[in-house]
Structures are given as C-alpha cells and as structure tokens.
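Appendix B. Chain record.
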Amino acid sequence: MITTQHTLKASPALTRFDFFNRLKELKDDFHNNILFKAMVNGEFTPAARDKFLFHHQFFSDQFQRLIMLRSAMCTHPQLEDIFYGHLVEELGHHKMLEAERNKISLKKDIIIEALTMWFPYQMFSTSPLEQLVIVNCGVETAALIIYHYAIPALDPEKKSEFFRIHEIHDGYHQTMGHDLLKNLTSQEYERLIAILEDTWAILNTLMARLCTLSLAD
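Structure tokens predicted for this chain:
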C-alpha cells in the first residue's frame, strides 16, 4: 500500500510590518462606524450632543482609571517613564468634561459601563507591551478619528477645552513607545495583533452604542 505523507506548511513569521498593516486596516474600518456617519449627516442636535457627552463621561472616567493603573503597575524599564509621562498629560481630563457638559438626568447604560470597564481591567492581565497597544495603538489612535468627527458635529465653534486639549495631544500620544514594537518575535506580534483587534472591536461597539443612545427618543 502506498501512503502519501502531507506536511503542513508553516505560517510565515509575523513582523512589525504585519502589526502596523493590521493597525491601518482597523483604523480605516473605524471611519465606517455609524456614529461618525450620523455626525457627518448632521443628526446630532443639541439634545443628542448632551446625551452623547453624558454617556461619553463613563468612557472618560474609565480611561482615567486605565491610565493610572497602567502607570502604577509598570516596572518595565523602557516603558515606565513613557507611561508616567502619558498619565501626567491625561490627569484630570474626565473632570474637565464633567465641568463642561450640560447636566442632564439619564439612566446609566449597563452596556456602556461594561464596554468601558474592559479597558482598565486589561491592566491586570496583560503585559506592558500589550498595554502600550491597548492605550496608544488603540484608544489614543481611535481618539484622533473620534474627535475628527465629533468636534465639527458637537463643538463647531471650538469652545470646549476638553476637545481642544485632546486635539492637541492625541496625535503625539498615538505614537508613544512605537520604537519598542520593533524586532519582536513572531509569537509576540501574534499576541499584540490579537489584543489590537480586541481593542478596536470594543471601540467600534462602544461608538455604535453611543450613537444609538444619543439619537434615541
């Protein structure tokens, strides 16, 4: 009896190029979120704006917890100063939003709460490089896209200090620590791409939920 042996071809080793190419794909896809389409189409009335900022407050609050936890727990010699510097620049921004937005009486949304709490909880189970990906390649990179659409729709006269300060700093924040994403193993890139995809999936779902709640009657 003649038997044929089949050998499995090994997958190509993942590189820095694969990581940043996937990041570009996720960024491009994020522009298609229903939230941004609604903002471009002029669907955000003053009432919708107030609801958006009410629910966005939960994201801002959890981001503060995330950025504080990340810095407090970091002992990585190359990332410790980067994480601390980022914390210093972000500290108190949630209070800035709270002071600026109109106070309205709404019931908190448990889905928003669950989605936003995902971010700080990752700081207990991920490596420093994964945390860099979540925050800087994820949240901060997405923030540039969010405010690109949100500022014309919600603050066309650019009166908001909260929006202004993020417009200034987030471009720099998205690239912090990128040099440390070079020359890693294929297995490390595989893990970083996985956490990158999870982060952007959460962000996409969060933005869609913010849109639904903001435009609800």
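Further analysis of this model is presented in Appendix C.
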